[in-house]
Design goal:
- The structure is a single chain.
- The protein has about 375 residues and is an all-alpha fold.
- The chain has one domain.
- The chain is built from 18 helices and 2 strands.
- The chain has a two-stranded antiparallel ribbon with strand order 1-2.
- Helix 11 runs parallel beside helix 16 and helix 12 runs antiparallel to helix 13.
């Protein structure tokens, strides 16, 4: 906490300084990425599963990785645990950098870094769920190849298989092309109304029942622990706080759908489809441990980034201010409410006290 919050402030302030777009793109943004990468790469006892991964790393029988063998093969490349932490952090941030460099306009770097550092599903999840982060690296390439470059769908499915061998939650992306095709057949404002209805239902507990049912159906064969994710969704995602957080995204989602209703920009629709898929997952409380936020929130920000220059100042404020509120509330919630309630008995490896590998020699 004592490092994370100042780092957020430094990155946002740097991006708001009156440099021209060229300097922001070649200097400010890479500098912020570098600082965040170092922050992630040299951490020690920082991250909710830090010691769980360490225990898996040090046990030979655990490293065979029967269900997610590619991650365990990847981890076996490193003789020391801190090397695994550093390498995975660098690869994750390289994937993020590639998207930001290509698709986020310099004037919106500050908004991106605020979201990336404050919303638990992004930077925090990368430091907690390393397997999911590595699956994100693979899926980023697959989604880029299929949706942006329009490569053969077989290549996309191959990346799904590879990503699933890092973390099995990636397998659910096999349905994205079908869902995307369906989304393109529905008018954007109808999509927004559906999202709005889901968000309203989240205040009544209906989405909690839907998510519990879907978890039990999807994961009843042991694909993922249904009880764990169902209980997590019930207690921490489908409650009133979760409903309020989802409601803040109604405003930017409205402008994304409004722009989609008016434009014929093919590049925009690629990100529109992915952002809609994410928002539907989010609104139904199916964002298991923030994994889909990690996988897909960047596409929501890119879609909004494309819309913002076409909007007047009032519309921009209506779209962006709720996201800023969301970021501040999420940061407060993660460091206070979630630490006290969800991980009260798991004091090691949390995000309260930042330590580095240099503070804990000899290195693990």
């Amino acid at each position: 906490m004592q490092v994370h919050i100042p780092l957020v402030i430094v990155c946002v302030v740097l991006c708001l300084l009156p440099f021209n777009s060229k300097w922001k793109k070649v200097l400010i943004m890479p500098l912020c990425m570098l600082m965040i990468t170092v922050y992630m790469a040299i951490r020690y006892d920082y991250g909710l599963d830090f010691w769980a991964y360490y225990n898996g790393f040090t046990k030979e029988d655990h490293r065979t990785g029967a269900t997610e063998p590619l991650f365990f093969l990847f981890s076996s490349l490193f003789p020391k645990y801190y090397m695994l932490i550093a390498a995975s952090s660098i690869l994750m941030m390289c994937a993020v950098y590639s998207w930001v460099k290509k698709y986020i306009a310099p004037e919106y770097y500050a908004l991106f870094f605020m979201c990336f550092m404050c919303i638990p599903g992004m930077c925090f999840t990368m430091m907690t769920a390393i397997r999911t982060g590595m699956a994100f690296v693979v899926l980023s390439w697959g989604l880029f190849a299929y949706y942006i470059k329009k490569s053969n769908i077989g290549l996309f499915f191959l990346t799904i298989i590879i990503a699933t061998l890092f973390h099995n939650s990636a397998f659910l992306f096999i349905a994205v092309p079908l869902i995307g095709a369906l989304i393109m057949r529905i008018k954007p404002m109808i999509i927004f109304i559906i999202f709005l209805v889901f968000s309203i239902f989240s205040f009544t507990g209906v989405t909690q029942s839907i998510s519990n049912f879907l978890f039990s159906q999807l994961f009843s064969v042991g694909f993922i622990d249904a009880d764990y994710y169902s209980n997590y969704a019930t207690k921490y995602v489908s409650n009133i706080n979760g409903a309020i957080l989802r409601s803040t995204l109604i405003f930017p989602m409205f402008f994304i759908c409004l722009y989609a209703n008016r434009t014929k920009d093919k590049a925009f629709f690629k990100f529109y489809v992915l952002s809609v898929v994410y928002m539907m997952i989010y609104s139904l409380s199916l964002d298991i441990d923030y994994r889909f936020t990690l996988y897909m929130f960047v596409f929501f920000i890119i879609a909004l980034n494309i819309c913002l220059p076409k909007m007047n100042i009032v519309s921009k404020l209506i779209a962006v201010l709720p996201i800023i509120v969301l970021c501040i509330f999420q940061l407060y919630s993660y460091f206070n409410l979630m630490q006290d309630e969800l991980f009260g008995d798991y004091s090691e490896g949390n995000f309260l006290i930042y330590e580095t590998i240099f503070d804990n020699l000899p290195l693990i």
